[in-house]
Amino acid sequence: MPHARNRNPSPIPEVTWDTGLKEMNETWKGAIACLGVAIFFVMTIGIIYWQVVDQPNKNWILKGSFSGLIWERRTQTLVFQTLTEDKTFAEIDVGNVGNPDGEVPFVRNLCWLNKTEFCYTWDSVAEVRISLETEEASETECYSVTWSPIHCHVDLKDCFSMVNVSWYGGAGVNTPSWPINDANISMQPFTVSDLRDNPSGFGSVLERYFLGSSGVSVLVAPNIPLHVGMESRQQFCLQTLPSMERMPMQYTVCVGHNIKAVHQESMQQLSTATRELPNMDVLRLPFWKLSANVDSRAKLERELRTFSNRLKRHHLGEGVISLDEHSTALLSNMDHSYLNSKRRTSKRHTRDIPFVKLLNISITLSPYLSIDSQQFQTSMQEGIEDYWLSLPLGPQGRPVPLLTQWKGKYSVKLNITNPEATNWFLDKVDILRSHLGMEYVILEGGEGNPFEEQSLHPPLALVGDEYIGLLADLAERIEDNAIVTSGTRSSHKPLFIRMSGVESNWSYSGLKGIIPSLLHHSLLGYNFFIPDAVGGSLSIEPVTDEELFVRWLGIAAFLPVISFQTPPWVFEKEWVSATRTSFVLNITRFYIAKHHDFVVPLILKYTEEWQKNGTPIYRPLWWLSPDNPITFTIDDEFLIGDEVLVAPVTEKGALQRDIYLPESDFQWQDTNNAQVFDGGTFLESYPVGLGDVPVFIRWRS
Ligand SMILES: *[C@@H]1O[C@H](CO)[C@@H](O)[C@H](O)[C@H]1NC(C)=O
Ligand SMILES: *[C@@H]1O[C@H](CO)[C@@H](O)[C@H](O)[C@H]1NC(C)=O
Ligand SMILES: *[C@@H]1O[C@H](CO)[C@@H](O)[C@H](O)[C@H]1NC(C)=O
Ligand SMILES: *[C@@H]1O[C@H](CO)[C@@H](O)[C@H](O)[C@H]1NC(C)=O
Ligand SMILES: *[C@@H]1O[C@H](CO)[C@@H](O)[C@H](O)[C@H]1NC(C)=O
Ligand SMILES: *[C@@H]1O[C@H](CO)[C@@H](O)[C@H](O)[C@H]1NC(C)=O
Ligand SMILES: *[C@@H]1O[C@H](CO)[C@@H](O)[C@H](O)[C@H]1NC(C)=O
What we know:
GO terms for molecular function: hydrolase activity, hydrolyzing O-glycosyl compounds. The chain is α+β, with helices and mostly antiparallel strands.
C-alpha cells in the first residue's frame, strides 16, 4: 500500500543579517537586496536564453583526422562531414528515435574524456554509442553506431538522406534502377523474397550494404532483424521493430575521399571469406532455354532432337540446352523412381538416354516436391516426414509437413537442415547425372519462406532468407556445376547466379533494367551471373519485336553468359531467299563469336583482381571518374575492367545516342571504326546502326 512520506516541514531558520551588516543603514540594505535579486534574474534569464535560444544549432560530437560527426539539433540529424565542413558525406535523420515533441540538445558526451567514443542516453527511449574506428594505412574512417532501446516498445529507425547523394547497393527490385534513389519501397523485412509473388519487395541479390556517391558506405550488422524502406529521392530507412529482446540497431558508416576508395575498403569488411571461383566453363557456351510444352518423355526427346538439329542447321555452334523443372522431371521420369534409391534401385525406372548424353544440357531442380507426386506419398508411408519442412503438431508430436505453393501446385519444401534429407537430394542429383550426363544443375526456389508466408514462427536456422544460404551450401556440394537463382551473404561461393526473368519490353522492367541490374550484381560481388534470356523471358510467347531482340543481344554479348529463350530463327521470314541469310540469325552468330573471343578472355583477366581484392569485374563509370558527378547517374553504359567501355542503345527506334567517356587522362578508341576520342567528354548523338554496339577500348598513343 502506498504511503505518503511523513512531511514535517521545519520552519525556515531565520536569517541573521545582524552580525555583518550591523553598521549598515536600512537604505543600503534595501539597495543590496535589490541588486542581488536583479543579478539573480539576469542570470536566470541568461541561462534560460542559453539553454533554449542561443545554443548552437549544431555541435561536433566526434572528430577524426579528416571527417567528423555533427549533431544538428534543429533537424534532429547526425551529419557526417569533413572537418572543414565543405563536404557532407551523409545525413541521418534520427528524429524517429528521439522524442518527436521536444528538441534534444544532445551535447553531453557521457563517455567523456574519450575522444573516440560518444555516448548519449535519450531519455527513456534509447542509448546511442558511436565509436570512431580508424585503421592506420586505411584511407577511410569508420563510425560504428549502436542504438540500444531502453524498453521493449521502442522502434529504432534511422533514415539516410538521398538528397544530393546517389546511393547504390541494398537489394534487387522488380524495376532496377542505378542509382537506387528512385526506388519506392514500403518498410518491410530486408530479406530476399520471390519477386513474382511479392513484386513490391526486395529480391536477389541482397546485401546489408549501401554505398553513397559522396564517399560513404553503410554496413548493417548481420545478426539483427532488419527492416528497410525507401522513399524515392528522399531517404532510405533502417528499422528494427520493438521486441522483448530489445534488439539493438547496429551499423557502421565509413567515409573516405571518394566513392571508389570507400567501396574498396568496405568490400573487405562485407565479405571476409576467401573468394572461390565457380566453374568458368559456364562462360564459354550460350545457354538455350528449351521451351517445350509437352507432357511426355517421348515428345520431349523429340523436341530436344529437333532443337539440337536446328542449332546445327543454323550454324549456331555449340551450346548448353537448358531444361526447365517440368522438362527435367519428364526426362528423368523422376516421379516413378522411388525415394529410397539405395533399397530399390531406380535403374529399372530411369533408363539411360544416350542421345541426351551427347548434348550439353542443364537441368533444373528445386527443393519443392508436389504432394501429388509418388515420391511424396512414399515418404509419408515410410515415415520420413522430417525430410520436409514441418510443424511438430501431429499425433504423438509427429511432424506434419508444411504445405506451400510452388509453380501453382501444393508442395512441400525440403528440410534443408536435415542431413539425411540433403543427402537424399544429392543422391538424386547423382542418379540423374549418370542417366542424363548433364553439365549443369540449376537450383531454383531458395527464395520464399513457407513459415513466414503463413505467419508461423520458423526455427531459428530458417528465419528470413537463411534458406538461400543453406541451398547455396547444398549447391556447392554438387561439384562445381550448380547454378542458383538467388544470393545473399554468398558472393564468395563458387556459384553462378541466374538472374530473375524480365519483361519483353523497353522499360526498366525489361531492356533498360539490364545494365542497372548488372552493375548491382557486380557491385555486391556477384560477378558470375547468367542474365535473363535475350528478349526477356517473362512472357510465354516468343519475342516478336526484332529490334528489341537485336538490341538486347547487343547487351547480352558483353555479359558473362548469353542466354536465349526465343531462338533467332523465329525471325526468319519466308521471303528471305536461300542465298541471303536472315539478319537476326547472322547477327546472333556474330555476337556469340564476339562473346567467345573478346568478352570471355576479358572476364577471365579481371577475375584475378576480383579474387584478390573483391574488385568488381563489371564497373560503373564512376569507377574511373569517382569525383565527377556526371558519372553517378549513368545507367546505360558500363565498363569491363578498366579498359573496355560498352554503351549500347536502349531506346526503341534510336539510331544514335549520347555517350559519356570518363577520365580525362585517357583516350578511348571506338572498336567499330577506330576513331579516337578524349576521355572526360560527351559524344552527342553518336550514330549507332541497328546491329551495332559502341564499344570503346582504352587507347594509349
Ligand atoms: C574509449 O573507448 C573505446 C571503446 O570503448 C576504448 O577502446 C578506448 O580505450 C577508450 N579510450 C580512452 C582514452 O578511454
Ligand atoms: C543539395 O545541393 C544543392 C545545390 O548544390 C544545395 O543548394 C542544397 O542545399 C543541397 N541540399 C542538401 C539537403 O544538402
Ligand atoms: C511511393 O509509394 C507510396 C505508396 O506505397 C505512395 O503513396 C507514394 O506516392 C510513392 N511515392 C512516389 C514518389 O512514387
Ligand atoms: C559440350 O561442351 C564441350 C565443352 O564444354 C564441347 O567440347 C562439346 O563439343 C559440347 N558438345 C555439344 C554437343 O555442344
Ligand atoms: C528438420 O529435420 C530435423 C531432423 O534432422 C528436425 O529436427 C527438424 O525439426 C526439421 N525441421 C523442420 C523445420 O521441419
Ligand atoms: C513493360 O512491361 C511492364 C510489365 O508488364 C509494364 O508495366 C510496362 O508498362 C511495360 N512498358 C512498356 C514501355 O511497354
Ligand atoms: C553478317 O554479319 C556480319 C557482321 O555484322 C556482316 O559483316 C556480314 O556481311 C553479314 N552477312 C550477311 C550474309 O548478312
